Amino acid sequence: MSANASGNGRLAVVAFGGNALITDNDHSAIPDQFHNVEAMAPHVVDMIEDGWRVLVTHGNGPQVGFILRRSELAMAEVAPVPMDYAVADTQGAIGYMFNKALTNELRRRGLARPVATVVTQTLVDAADPAFVNPTKPVGAFMDEGSARRAAAELGWTVAEDAGRGWRRIVASPRPRAIVELDTIRSLLDTGVLVVACGGGGIPVTTNGQGELAGIAAVIDKDLASELLARQLRADALIIPTGVEKVAIGFGTPQQQWLDRLTVSQAVAYAESGQFGEGSMRPKVEALVGFVTANPAGAGVITDAANLGRALRRETGTWIEADDRPAL
Ligand SMILES: Nc1ncnc2c1ncn2[C@@H]1O[C@H](COP(=O)(O)OP(=O)(O)O)[C@@H](O)[C@H]1O
Ligand SMILES: NC(=O)OP(=O)(O)O
């Protein structure tokens, strides 16, 4: 392994959004997702060349919904896929896309660094109120009529998603612990480029004797990535998504893109409804949690193409502890 591939250096958790993996009109098309992951890989490898150790996490909202829908459509012929297994399926498939794209990009640049995807379980509380109040959008966007029909005919819970259309929603309990945390840490310490905690992790509960059991839910990957970044004492938590910066008045004539938000400003804006529920709000909340626990840490929201520029502070929205002086 080259010196650059050692387990030293600043650690960044980079949490790619599930929607950010999709640009094609046919939202469920796999080649389009791989094409987008291929476009993201050079930005991750740029960070490695800049001396960062990188842990990639990713969302799975659209993809887990597609798997559940395929399973429903095929029910007459094959047994249905339980939701925890559907999340595991997305970790495997999206992890494979990142493994392949990152390995190819490292090879192109002559960098010797192993890449590994860790199937990751995330502990949740079976009594979490989220199980009776689903909030996590999954699968395709629909018009309201189609959504209401799916609710009546298929028993889905549906809701409008951040002004972008209607979607199926499922339970999204808070992540409490990452079961494979020590394995992920060991891999990072030996210089492996790790992909982990996909889709927020496979939701599991424990019976108190440490015995794990899967449960039907999709965990928010921003909140799980924050937990992971905090427990690994990462230096940066970066959330690449569909926008270069966070805005107040998003989508209105008063829209104002933000370079920096203090924790207090972020909390106040979140409480006044400035950030889309289930879209931008959990990202802001994740970074507030991260920089509150680690005031010297960098908490940044941007798009994948601007990862490097955002880390150099040329763009993106940085969320910072209240007492950190503005640059
Ligand atoms: N205040 C805001 N500022 C910027 N974008 C916002 C805001 N509120 C909602 N959004 C929307 O949230 C999207 C990011 O959420 P989403 O697509 O769910 O994330 P992910 O990339 O994790 O799949 C942005 O692309 C934007 O359309
Ligand atoms: N699990 C999750 O939060 O996925 P998205 O980022 O795709 O919504």
UniProtKB/TrEMBL annotation:
Residues 11-291 form the Aspartate/glutamate/uridylate kinase domain. InterPro entries: AceGlu_kinase-like_sf, Asp/Glu/Uridylate_kinase, Carb_kinase. Transmembrane segments: none annotated. The keyword Transmembrane helix does not apply. One of its GO terms (molecular function) is kinase activity. Keywords: Kinase, Transferase. It comes from the Bacteria. Belongs to the carbamate kinase family. NCBIfam families: PRK12352.1. PANTHER family: CARBAMATE KINASE, CARBAMATE KINASE-RELATED. This is Carbamate kinase. It comes from Dactylosporangium salmoneum. The lineage of its organism: Bacteria, Bacillati, Actinomycetota, Actinomycetes, Micromonosporales.
